[in-house]
Amino acid sequence: MRIWTQASKLAAQTPPERNRYVDFLRAVSILVVVVGHWLIATAHYVDGTLTPGHLLRSEPGTQWLTWIFQVMPIFFIVGGYSNAVSLESARRKSDRYAVWLAARLNRLVAPLLILLVAWSAIALVMYLVDVRPAVIQFTSKAALIPTWFLAIYIMLVILAPAAYRAWRRFGFASFWAFVALAVLTDLAFFAADQRWLGWINYFWVWLAVHQLGFAWRDGRLSSPALLLLYSATGFITLYLLIKQGPYPLAMVGSPDEGLSNTRPPKVTLIALGIFQFGLLLALEGPMRRALDSLRLWTATVLINSMIMTLYLWHITIMTLLGTALYFANGFGFGIEPGTPAWWWTRPVWIGVLLLLLFPAAFALSPLERRGRSPDAKIPSATRQIAGAILLCLGISLLAGFGYGGGVFTGQDIVSFALVVVGAELSGLLPRIRRSS
After folding, report:
1. Which terminus in the chain has less CB density within 10 A, N or C?
2. What is the structure's pLDDT at 433?
3. Residues 221, 21: contact at Cβ < 8 Å?
4. Assigned domain for 436 exists
5. The whole model's pTM is what?
6. DSSP 122
7. What are phi and psi of 393, to 5 degrees?
8. Is residue 432 part of a domain?
């Protein structure tokens, strides 16, 4: 396989000082998210009508599995580590903030733009062939759900230099400051019924988790015994928050009516991140030795080379497969979710989706790896930040309402325009080369 050979060559050139476990955790966490989404999305015929569903609602006994499948805290911690490495490199090269930011945004936004353009075209075609507006909205909203992560992660990248300076000056006090802000926000959410205020926890919760990546980079989290103690503390805290507090069991989505640990984020995600990461980081020594194996490291390099593409397109692939099965007389949708027969068919379902996703990712991933042109003009930091804010606002609206949805007519068009204008301001739209 040519792509495996190329990945193997890159893997063999890895500098010895690179922490391969960071890349491994990034790859595994994204794959866990992908499989988790494929698992909890259910659809079957009820009284002759194909009905979409959510496993965590129809089978509440499965909600504990989200303590395993909710690995976004891991990804944000890994992001903190990677941002610290990148900022240290920029400082050594005396790169200004605008140069650093342009490079970080480029890899995040390039694959995202392709997905949004593709779904704009899909939604338009569905509209022209008279597909019901509710179907257009549901399918596009489902496919664009993964983009919420990039909206908040882009904002964290913008804030990363300031957050890193806070870490360098105050250490763990900077982490606890964000935790305190998250706790206060939750108190306002529950005790004062200020539900609108809960949305700022997208910053406080994920900034707190992101700070742990800085701690890892600085070697503050190196003792396995201490890490296991942190993990146990995180687990106990999470258990008590759910058992004695107002928080739901599920760490993904909103299976409990009107209440969610993720929309908006709650302090439970910080406790979950400490619990999971303490366990995983306690294994860092043996795992780094295992990753000296060229085969395992090559697989890690291969996944990371297309990681955003895999993440962004996995629900689209599921939607397309579900559509094909629907038109094939609903093959496979006659099995009731949660039954033994349904569970036995899940490995087949996931295996088929993987077989479809990876070739699509191979084809699209060069866009993810495309770097900025060396002669490309770098916009000012102010312009990049303004553009990124517009872009993230557009992404959030599309992820929240889909195409065809919203609080006013044409909101989807306005949302897409925000993305395009934001990308243009940030210098992230591809440039057409003019022949001389």
Report:
1. C
2. 45
3. no
4. no
5. 0.91
6. H
7. -65, -45
8. no
